[in-house]
């Protein structure tokens, strides 16, 4: 089931990208955000959930083990592997993502 994009119903989140370095403020949903309802220029990415319920990757689309979606006001430079791995998501919903493969 898809959820309509609504800033008043979604949870704010900040993604820190290291390569190139920048912080992008967006919105998070536990479900799938309907890509047809986001404002023009915004992009929706899916979060892959790990075995313990933690978010481990940000991808264009997650068919199984979908942990949530993130709507961002700009397109990320997704590496050739097709995803960013998360280093951390803290209590203030600041996510740290990297294209490196180390934790």
List the helices and strands and how they pair.
Blueprint: E1 2-3, E2 11-18, E3 21-29, E4 32-33, E5 43-49, E6 55-59, E7 66-72, E8 83-89, E9 94-98
Parallel strand pairs: 1-4, 2-9
Antiparallel strand pairs: 2-3, 3-7, 5-6, 5-7, 6-8, 8-9
Describe, in plain words, how this protein is organized in 3D.
With 103 residues, the protein is mainly beta. It has one domain. The strands form 2 sheets. Strands 2-3-7-5-6-8-9 form a 7-stranded mixed beta barrel. Strands 1-4 form a two-stranded parallel sheet. 0% of the residues lie in helices and 50% in strands.
Summarize the structure in short.
By secondary structure, the protein is mainly beta. The chain is 0% helix and 50% strand. The model is unreliable at 98-103 (pLDDT under 50).
How many separate helices? 0
User: Which H/E pattern describes the elements?
Assistant: EEEEEEEEE
Nearest-integer average pLDDT: 80
Give the CA-based shape: globular
The helix fraction, in percent, is: under 10%
Strand order, sheet with most strands: 2-3-7-5-6-8-9
Q: Tell me the quaternary state.
A: single chain
Tell me the Rg in angstroms: 13 Å
Number of β-strand runs: 9
Strand composition percent: over 45%
Alpha-carbon distance between the termini?
A: 32 Å
Structural class: mainly beta
Note poorly predicted spans: 98-103
Largest sheet: 7 strands, mixed, barrel
Q: Into how many domains do the coordinates divide?
A: 1
């Amino acid at each position: 089931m898809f959820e309509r994009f609504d800033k008043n119903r979604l949870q704010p989140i900040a993604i820190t990208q290291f390569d190139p370095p920048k912080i992008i403020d967006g919105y998070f949903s536990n479900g799938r955000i309907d890509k047809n309802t986001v404002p023009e220029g915004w992009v929706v990415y899916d979060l892959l959930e790990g075995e313990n319920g933690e978010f481990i990757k940000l991808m264009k689309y997650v068919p199984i083990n979908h942990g949530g979606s993130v709507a961002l006001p700009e397109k990320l430079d997704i590496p050739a592997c097709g995803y960013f791995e998360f280093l951390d998501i803290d209590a203030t919903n600041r996510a740290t993502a990297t294209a490196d493969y180390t934790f």
